[in-house]
Amino acid sequence: MAGAREDGVPAPAGRDPDEAALPTERSPRTILVTLLLGLFTVNVTVTILAVSIPRISGDLGASQSTLTWVVSGPILAFGIIGPAVGKLGDLWGQRKVFLLGLAGAAVSAAASAVAWSAGSLIAFRVLAAAQGAATGPASFALIALVFPASRRVRALGWWSMVAAGGPVVGVVIGGPLVATLGWRAIFAGQVPLVLAALVVAAKVLPETPRRRVGAFDWGGAGLLALSATPLLVALNLAPGRGWSDPWVVALLVVAPLATVGFLVHEGRTPAPLLPPRYLRRRGFALPILMLGLMNAAYMGSFVLTPLLMQNVLGFDETRTGLVSTARPLAFAVTGPLAAVVVARLGERSTGVLGAVALVASMGVMATIGAGTATGVIVVGLALAGVAMGISNPAMSSTVAHSVDEADLGVAGAAQQMVVQVGVTFGIQLLQTVQQAREGAVGLEGSYAQAYLAAAVLAGLCVVVAAGVHRSTAPGSRHPDPVEGADVVDAELAGVPVPSGGLAAPQPTLSD
């Protein structure tokens, strides 16, 4: 890695924004297409069964509430395992971890095709997501390394479209595919696609330098899983058991205690899973928090929408899938154009604009009832696609700019974890609101109130986005150094710090 010391910490000198951190024989565009192919083949099936839960419930003889974990379980695993494999990518090399993730996903897909019960299907889908989780952080790190900073937002626009859009496409095409081929055939067909992506990736992807110091933080990985899992399980159990149920209360107590334990542990261990100094950087913490909140509203509402269209509007699975294409299509159009928006407005204003669009989307969806025209639904879904299409690349680019190159895998994994936990939280929260309010306001009204809850989450995104540092000046082609670099971070990176502080911000140590 150019400009890096043996221990993997970037040298203090800045880098020309037109220079890639990892020169390669293959063109960056070829590497990007290869990464997106592998990422899509893995994550498209994370949510592909969302609109077919009633059908699978009858096939396997399980309740729809239980089968919800066919969707939320893999999403949770995708995020929780992410930091671990992100760290392994920094230690072992991103190419190796990406290939291992693809291979594991192929095996788990084959197992899912022969699942014999709801429990086995959920277990195989969670295992597939845990293995496929390696593709997210590894692809994020490779893109950040092979593309110069001046072209990174556009590349991450495509990455965001596939990373977030793949599961959305799975929701859209899930109904028609299951109705036509059956859910087992979907996973059987996924196996050769993932294997093909594996072969191409093995030939195209470059290896990244391995970090020569630091051991894997098993304690941090365990505490991190213990921080998120109990909360999400409690949200799943509460509608049926009640919020005062001892198990629900115990789970809600364990989650924050484990979070505190994780933060304390990370501050003491010599090789943390997530270096605590990054959590003090606005360019790292706030964009990740915003993406988590946005995806909670975005995917929570998207899993809710097919149920609304089928249970309230009387749509069949095929019509539900066709109408739902409005969201991924809007995402597909706006995602790659995010670089243009960021160049004109800057990351902060772009994030605020996307959050406002998401609030508007949830407001439109809250008005849908039995007599609502299909066009209104399309507008509501398209607004959400536009919101995520312009916000994701801007926030992802800010995250990449805020960490050392040796920790890009960790940064991508942290972002993936918060996003996927947000997704799972949003799914469980909105379904909890809908189920809890149905008896009081009726079926149609319960969906409206669930969308209003999503609008509140989107409103929080506006507040968080307003606090994000602007790392690209409006009308500028290159990222600007961020003001207020942390002196402690500079000392950790080996940059001499005068008694009066840093004379000028360091590009690789942005706050």
Plain-language structure description:
- Residues 31-473 form the Major facilitator superfamily (MFS) profile domain.
- It is a multi-pass membrane protein.
- With 511 residues, this protein is mostly helical.
- 73% of the residues lie in helices and 0% in strands.
- The protein has helices spanning 28-43, 53-60, 64-67, 69-80, 82-92, 94-113, 118-132, 135-146, 149-181, 183-204, 218-241, 246-268, 276-279, 282-311, 317-324, 326-334, 338-345, 347-365, 374-401, 408-466, 487-492.
- Helix 1 packs antiparallel against helix 10 and helix 14 packs parallel to helix 18 (347-365).
Task: Note the main attributes of this structure.
511 residues; transmembrane; mainly alpha; globular
Quick structural overview:
InterPro entries: MFS (IPR011701), MFS_dom (IPR020846), MFS_trans_sf (IPR036259). 73% of the residues lie in helices and 0% in strands.
**Structural class based on helices, strands and sheet pairing:** mainly alpha
Write down the secondary-structure element order.
Answer: HHHHHHHHHHHHHHHHHHHHH
Our Rg estimate from Cα atoms comes to 22 Å
Give the rounded overall mean pLDDT: 75
Low-confidence runs: 1-15, 472-511
> Briefly, what CATH class of the largest domain?
Mainly Alpha
Largest sheet: none
Helix content: over 70%
Number of domains: 3
Characterize the quaternary organization of these chains. single chain
Distance between the termini: 23 Å
CATH topology of the largest domain: Growth Hormone, Chain: A
The backbone outline, from C-alpha atoms, is globular
